[in-house]
Amino acid sequence: MKHIPRKRFGQNFLTDQTVLYDIIRAIDPQPDDAMVEIGPGLAAMTGLLLESLRQLHVVELDRDLVARLKKNFDPARLVVHEGDALKFDFASIPVAEGGKLRVVGNLPYNISSPLLFHLAAIAPQVQDQHFMLQKEVVERMVAEPGGKSFGRLSVMLQWRYYMDLLFVVPPSAFDPPPQVDSAIVRMIPLPNPLPCDEKKLEQVVTKAFSQRRKVIRNCVAGMFTENDLIDAGVDPQARPEAVPVEQFVALANRLGT
Q1: Does the annotation flag 39 for ligand binding?
Q2: Is 60 known as a binding-site position?
Q3: 98 is in an annotated binding site
Q4: What's CA 65's distance to the chain center, in Å?
Q5: Which CATH class is domain 7-189?
Q6: What keywords would UniProt list here (predicted)?
Q7: Assigned CATH for 198-254
Q8: CA 115 to CA 85: how far, in whole Å?
Q9: Would the pTM of this model clear 0.90, i.e. be above it?
Q10: Number of H helices and number of E strands within the chain?
Q11: Where are the domains of the chain?
């Protein structure tokens, strides 16, 4: 029975075999990897991953798709977790001693940013992440300081991860085709991120990018003095998008001191 994609779940199923194999090559699954796939959908990527993996965990919200997965795969090889990925405890997936979790998925575009932040909480326990996301979101994730795409998402994720846009996927690769281009991003947690309180960094970054057209001195007025900015290595006349991650971290570390 054909599954009808549901808009409320942001379902766009990847069907292009060439793209699927390109993604699998990028992930390079190994037999003993502890891997979880978010939103397996109709299992196009799931089946290919299981050609290399001994076992795969998946997180799926759609009950109809959960039933389909349980029917079509050996439960000893495919462990299905029914529920919302935004609420799922990814740290609960068993990992071999000394090993780390690998996370993959075609993420629903309507929850991509919250899901990325949810996963950031377990970054030290993750080996890598490979995701299909809206191209515009990936461009913001990997943007360098000085460009219009550099913003809150860039800073908060680049503080924790090394990221790379691997390749672009056109709408024609999906059923139904989305109205935007997609892209594959590789995210590797940094072994030693700059020491910083995440909540303070979030507070500074949110304030700084709330008025992008103003210089940073005006954006963070009331939070930092001009001398505070200078002491943190920040040019008070710079626009927020021109301030690199390490300087935002330096500001966050001055907050409340």
Answers
A1: yes
A2: yes
A3: no
A4: 23
A5: alpha beta
A6: Cytoplasm, Methyltransferase, RNA-binding, rRNA processing, S-adenosyl-L-methionine, Transferase
A7: 1.10.8.100
A8: 7
A9: yes
A10: 10, 9
A11: 7-189, 198-254
